[in-house]
Amino acid sequence: MIKVSDLSFSYTEEKFIQDINFEVEKGEIFGFLGPSGAGKSTLQKILTGLLRNYEGNSVVDGVESKYYKRNFYENIGVDFEFPSLYEKLTGRENLKFFGSLYSKKLRNIDEMLKMVGLQNDGEKKVCDYSKGMKSRLNFIKALLHNPEILFLDEPTSGLDPNNSRDMKNIILEEKAKGKTIILTTHNMVDAAELCDRVAFIVDGRIKALDSPHNLIMSKGAVKIKYSYYDGIEKTRECLLKKTSEDYKLKELIEKNQILSIHSSEPTLSDIFMEVTGRVLQ
Amino acid sequence: MKTYYVGLYFSFKQFIKQIYNDAMIFMICLAPILYILLFRYGLPLAEEISIEYIDLKVILSPYYLVFDLFLAVLTPTMFSYASAMVILGEIDDGITNYFAITPVGKEGYLISRLIFPLLFSLVITIIAISIFSITKILLRETIIISIMSTMLGYIMCMIVIAMSTNKVEGLAVMKLSGLLLIGILAPFFIKGNIQYMVSFLPSLWLSKYAVESNNIYLILYFLVSTLWVLVLNKRFKSKLL
Ligand SMILES: Nc1ncnc2c1ncn2[C@@H]1O[C@H](COP(=O)(O)OP(=O)(O)OP(=O)(O)O)[C@@H](O)[C@H]1O
Ligand SMILES: [Mg+2]
What we know:
Chain A has helices at 40-47, 91-99, 109-115, 131-143, 161-176, 188-194, 212-219, 247-254, 268-276, and strands at 2-9, 17-24, 29-33, 55-60, 63-64, 76-79, 149-153, 180-185, 197-202, 205-210, 223-230, 232-239, 258-264. By secondary structure, chain A is of the alpha/beta class. In chain B, 80% of the residues lie in helices and 0% in strands.
């Protein structure tokens, strides 16, 4: 569905986006992960045809991004990182208006409002919405014309856990319908849950690209942590693969002196730090 | 393809709706009507009433063309201000950029926000001059002057958008930019070559052309106007991208 090869781009003289290569299959959720200023939104702007003076190739649904025609956008839905809504119109009026720009049959507005818990706010003006309400309205605005490809730029940022959960479920539903989704996020937990594959982006380059599972398995090592009593309670750690080399552990097991023992898998955050040397959030 | 025009229609409808719902912008659009009422009907009345004391008609008749020229530039200017204010509001709300990823596109957005209103004001200006002008202006001149004033309207719109980042600033720039119309007065009130002090104003050449119908002024008008467009273009575009 999406094929990017040797893509580079810069806003100024200085090189920014460089050597970007990846492919996204139909029905896949592909994540862009990276610290602030890494170029995630910039990459999305290239893919959606907003920035057209790039080098290399960015082909979406068989069309080079530079050469998108108007009709192309019938099948693209974009949730930008900042809301783009008429503040003086109601939520419903906003959806109606943006829907009218498409020739496709629209989804039911009431159902969509309900999906994100705005069923009682459709007649309120957007300027009276909270930040999270605006995010949710902005999100369903991108789904309204039932696009085949979705670009979501930090859709869950600023949402409470419940709303965030709802939104993630909607994203998974869209995937189940065969939609292709590019998801930008800072949130490693969301990324690990939603994305089939993720690209770690730092300073305009992809530092790693694989499924969250593979990244965790290949790069990270499972640790075990155990505690025991020695005057006071003490804890120690060792790698799961090297338990036989840990004589303290052996000794404790033989004497039945272990108070607690846990194994812990590394999180995507740990892997991100290991690969890129940067901390997220 | 057909759907594109439907999208354009809805985009334009949304534009009109915003004007209608904003009292200030709505008043701006009504200004040409107020002007017509005041000068086309108020002026002869004033002349009639005053005739016993002073002959206002004699005093004012050399300046009738000034009234007509303001009649010509008022509609494009006011409609352009309305466009600019709506666009500034939409830039604020992030709407302008969003259009770029819809089938209507940035281009369709600009057509519905700039081209349609300008064409509309061109037609209205031609009609307004034909019906309401005090001096007799020939059809050929009427059309040329209307095209000139429409172009002036476009420049006014560019100025407001290029020089301001929100509606409040836009309003201030709008009031200031009204000064660019004083070139219309120069040929009537400033005798001799001093009037060319305001050569950089397109409105001077519009006025000169209306007074003398000399094509050289037409050419100068388009040269000076094009210069304004070129100077403003970069800032104007950067606001819309
Ligand atoms: N229009 C622009 N002109 C010049 N530089 C820009 C422009 N837009 C973005 N940049 C720069 O490009 C860099 C990357 O910005 P981008 O928005 O792609 O980051 P991001 O990864 O999406 O960050 P965040 O997580 O904060 O959203 C930043 O340094 C930013 O200053
Ligand atoms: Mg971003």
